[in-house]
Amino acid sequence: MTVHALEAIVLGSVLVVAAWTDIRYRRVPNVWLGLGLVAYVILFWLFGFDPWKAVLGGLLGLIVFLPFYWLGGMGAADLKLLGLVGVYLGPQGVLYSALYTALAGGALAVLALVLRASRRLPYAVAIAVGVGVYEFRSFLSF
């Protein structure tokens, strides 16, 4: 198993749990985000990833959707989740993931309108789909 595959499995696991808890309970517990960060630190310690790539990716992940958080269109947990995605994927990966996330979020909003859902959208689902699309496209380019 490659290091990239191990990274993708860990991040994918965090995203699946985050999406499930967002659908089920309408929240993403900080404990899952913290465990995802601890797992990255362990991977960093074992494999020696670039710390600047992780820091810049994490900050960019937080900044990209910050205006939507300020406007009330996104919760703090969604913002922190995208920051964690940035830690794992770095600046370029989080930007592409944010683009795919926005597209997935738009599709989710259209689905909510069609189904006349009046509840808050579980945006962790859109983040998980967006990151999944990015990882799949990255896998195809290997």
UniProtKB/TrEMBL annotation:
<dbReference type="InterPro" id="IPR050882">
    <property type="entry name" value="Prepilin_peptidase/N-MTase"/>
</dbReference>
<feature type="transmembrane region" description="Helical">
    <location>
        <begin position="121"/>
        <end position="140"/>
    </location>
</feature>
<dbReference type="GO" id="GO:0004190">
    <property type="term" value="F:aspartic-type endopeptidase activity"/>
</dbReference>
<keyword id="KW-1133">Transmembrane helix</keyword>
<feature type="transmembrane region" description="Helical">
    <location>
        <begin position="30"/>
        <end position="48"/>
    </location>
</feature>
<feature type="transmembrane region" description="Helical">
    <location>
        <begin position="6"/>
        <end position="23"/>
    </location>
</feature>
<feature type="domain" description="Prepilin type IV endopeptidase peptidase">
    <location>
        <begin position="9"/>
        <end position="110"/>
    </location>
</feature>
<feature type="transmembrane region" description="Helical">
    <location>
        <begin position="93"/>
        <end position="115"/>
    </location>
</feature>
<feature type="transmembrane region" description="Helical">
    <location>
        <begin position="54"/>
        <end position="72"/>
    </location>
</feature>
<keyword id="KW-0472">Membrane</keyword>
<dbReference type="GO" id="GO:0006465">
    <property type="term" value="P:signal peptide processing"/>
</dbReference>
<dbReference type="Pfam" id="PF01478">
    <property type="entry name" value="Peptidase_A24"/>
</dbReference>
<dbReference type="InterPro" id="IPR000045">
    <property type="entry name" value="Prepilin_IV_endopep_pep"/>
</dbReference>
<keyword id="KW-0812">Transmembrane</keyword>
<comment type="similarity">
    <text>Belongs to the peptidase A24 family.</text>
</comment>
<protein>
    <submittedName>
        <fullName>Type IV leader peptidase family protein</fullName>
    </submittedName>
</protein>
<dbReference type="GO" id="GO:0005886">
    <property type="term" value="C:plasma membrane"/>
</dbReference>
